[in-house]
Amino acid sequence: MTDSALSVLIINATLKPSPEASSTELLGTQLLEQFALHNVHGEIARAVDLTLAPGVETDMGGSDEWPQLREKILAADIVAFCSPTWVGQMSSVMQRILERLDAELSVTDDAGRPILFHKVAVTGVVGNEDGAHKITADLHQALNDVGFTVPAQGGTYWNGRAMEKVDYKDLSETPEAVRSANATLARNAAHLAGALRSAPYPPEKSE
Known about the structure:
Helix 1 (23-36) crosses helix 5 (176-198). This protein has helices spanning 23-36, 66-75, 92-101, 132-146, 176-198, and strands at residues 7-12, 41-46, 78-86, 89-90, 120-127, 155-159. The chain is globular, with a radius of gyration of 17 Å. The mean pLDDT is 95. By secondary structure, the protein is an alpha/beta fold. It has one domain: 3-Layer(aba) Sandwich (Rossmann fold), CATH 3.40.50. The chain is built from five helices and six strands, in the order βαβαββαβαβα. Strands 1, 2, 3, 4, 5 and 6 form a six-stranded mixed β-sheet that branches.
């Protein structure tokens, strides 16, 4: 079902600006490697390096750089939303991204379908504290709500041991459970994106 023309965008919602090392960046890089096995290629966008204005419009004007990131989202077949865990929650950068995506609910294609209906979303969460399951659930609900389709087992994560300070990027090797989850995520997302391209959701019937 995969297609060499399929593309993926990994959004890294770390709070650390480039070029600081980021566990979320590492997870995103690993996902890119898995997607490449299915002839799906793309890039990582570190959102904190952009000026993303608060608001729920596609362009808030002024120094707002959301339109540049939005253009990459709309050009991709698959978008991976990757966030660190802070105080048990997704990062504020990821929350801002979800708020900006709200504007897409009012944008439709030529057949009247919400513009994100054609796209697949997956998620990745890392952190040395609890919260990955809740963040994954919150992301999947929000992304599905704005129009993305989430594949089976479309979330991967790593939680460090409680009360310790080891980050994902500090591990000597990637745990087998994470490697397996990354592989399943990429395989299922590539399959689903190919299926949606071949057979898009039907448009609303006119009254």
